[in-house]
């Protein structure tokens, strides 16, 4: 009822029943079938339709009615055939047909609809709701949306008199509609949040720990590189300053030193060159360097380069640190790190080169890269978004899942622009975040973030509801490194790849310097010379060490270990050793050589010392071991099969889930091919896809597997491992999607079945009608469509109640199924509306016989509980043998025939005319 108005016209309810009972007569509104199906699916997912009135919605309609001065305010939800009112003020009806509703137009255009005078609007002038009760003259409706962006209804206000509606009033209506939208979506969002928290809780802590460890490792590597650069520059300056020391240092150098004349003939060959290449000094002197250590494939290029430098004084490798292949006396292939210089002595041109065998380091580096690539692959596969920044607020990590959340790549933006650029909102989704509210910025400032709610709502994309957890990252010495946040989606590594490239560039920088500590000790055991790197090693000034006893630079226990080698050197014996020392509280590993300083008379005047700091190598070995253990722990505890195959399809890695899912020990799989581990039918299903992967393609497949009588559906992705365009192997990741697939099958069944009667529903009926018409055309046979409803079914509900009405509907469906053929399709559209699709009927007369049979089948009384009730039906039949008649036309004829049967007194059938 309208406050202060006459009661609504009773014809409104009668017209509503009439329109509801006539399928296929909707007003032509700009909504495609597929779009409307998606929209209605989103509405049903909210689980609000046909629920009782709730104060949280009624409060909003009362406010809208009062603030805007409107007698009617409604929360209207637009279903397939109706608009249903979740909340209503000033109107008794709970729903009206969609075909005559104003709200359907607002939903279709997805923005506010204002009709200031319906009688002057061609779309609504003849609308029954305008020409009759409730006499709508003014209407304003703002669409409300589901959390996935579908328009599901409106908040609307109505008056029976024309009126204007300014921008201020429109904004008020939008604000109230936003509150209605929040209430509609609240249940779905809370349920999604609970599921996401349970799925990602354990993973979040492990991911944070891995990122912290990786950041610390990068920081330590950077400091080591800087220190080694300074060491090498100091060594080269010292070697140029004193020729005698250079001679001694070259002989004791840990790196091979080779000198040649302008023709490439060896004139210098130190002991380390003997050890590295296998040729003695006597064997090497006078020989061509290219024939000794340069592989066949590179010799001509080497000779041409030397000739070019001799003629023109320019060369690409002079004064440049580079890695190059070399060969040894026993024809072994190694990789050396080389620095070559050209100099003149006595007017003649010579070349000198330091060479260091880095083959083992490169192998270790490649192994570490392979492990790192596997870890990065796992990180990119996870559905947890990870974002990190440096200490100065520069975004440094933005994995696949994070990019999908935002729909944007990372950009070098000031932190104050993050929220606006990436569309970050507070947990309610209504308020844009301030800079200090962004989880990554809060973590950078030292706050430990745990499941902080936020919304990502990029323009033109579905909004995402996120729980963010993060913390600040610090280095081993407490220095600030930045912050990291993991984002869990409760509604998939560009930055990681950039970090990897930076890390590789830093690693290559190691080759630019020779890390050597150089010193001289007299026969009294006092320092007489120390280079800059050595001074830094001891952590003291030059005047604090030169002229002072060696023992003062060490603690007593450490000097005892060094002293034994000093005594041997002072006895004229050359010694080489490796050890670990604590100097100024720092632990260092080094490789040292003591070379006696023997004068022309044979007296020992002291010794020269050269030490290479190998601390980084030792720590790298420890880190690699720890990294492998962490990787094994992570992959063994992920609910997925993870493995790596080489190009011969042999396992190089497999996680513990192979034992749980297949009963195969992963350790026993390593080194074996797939055919060695699994039966032929298992391999045959996968071999073709694995071959495609080894051709460089990422492959996804879904297969059923059986183990111990249990059938699983596995979704697998095969990722090629590539380096320099060459496939080195394949990463295999498989997850169990059995539960998801079974759930999809159940949903499909529910979507096509009427839950009350077990008959096909409207969706299934429409698909089957199109298929039957197609078969009729192909087979050149007739078919018919029946529309049926129960006579005076409203009286049945009024007298027996809805439970009794449901029992009548079920018994009505059972009698229809017993009466027609099994090949005929019986469906329930809605309420008491049923349809039957008859195929292979040859004439209208045959249709009439079937109609009479159905009317007769309804003759016996229906038993409802302890009561008996007479139930009859009216039937409209449309028969065709024409290929020109489509589903809409056939339905229209059946609908018309049904109304003829009702007009003739009900409890009978009518066969529509025409072919």
Q: Can you offer a commentary on this structure?
A:
- It holds the Pfam family GGDEF.
- It comes from Massilia aquatica.
- This is PAS domain-containing protein.
- It is built from 28 helices and 34 strands.
- With 915 residues, the protein is an alpha+beta fold.
- The strands form seven sheets. A six-stranded antiparallel beta sheet has the order 3-2-1-6-5-4, sandwiched between helices. It has a six-stranded antiparallel beta sheet with strand order 13-12-17-16-15-14.
- Strand 31 and strand 32 form a beta hairpin.
- Helix 6 (167-241) runs parallel beside helix 16 (494-509).
- It is elongated, with a radius of gyration of 42 Å.
- The two termini are 48 Å apart.
Give the topology, please.
Blueprint lengths: L10 H10 L12 H13 L9 H14 L3 E7 L3 E8 L5 E3 L5 H7 L3 E3 L12 H4 L6 E8 L5 E9 L7 H75 L1 H10 L3 E6 L4 E4 L1 H7 L3 H4 L4 H5 L2 H17 L8 E7 L5 E13 L2 E10 L1 H23 L3 E6 L4 E4 L1 H7 L11 H4 L2 E3 L12 H6 L4 E8 L7 E11 L5 E10 L4 H16 L7 E6 L4 E4 L1 H7 L17 H15 L4 E9 L2 E13 L5 E10 L1 H23 L2 E7 L4 E4 L2 H6 L3 H4 L4 H4 L2 H15 L4 E9 L2 E14 L2 E11 L1 H14 L10 H18 L3 E8 L2 H27 L5 E6 L2 E7 L4 H14 L4 E3 L2 E3 L3 E8 L6 H17 L5 E3 L4
Parallel strand pairs: 33-34
Antiparallel strand pairs: 1-2, 1-6, 2-3, 4-5, 5-6, 7-8, 7-11, 9-10, 10-11, 12-13, 12-17, 14-15, 15-16, 16-17, 18-19, 18-22, 20-21, 21-22, 23-24, 23-27, 25-26, 26-27, 28-30, 28-33, 29-30, 31-32
Protein name: PAS domain-containing protein
Pfam family, one: PAS_4
Organism: Massilia aquatica
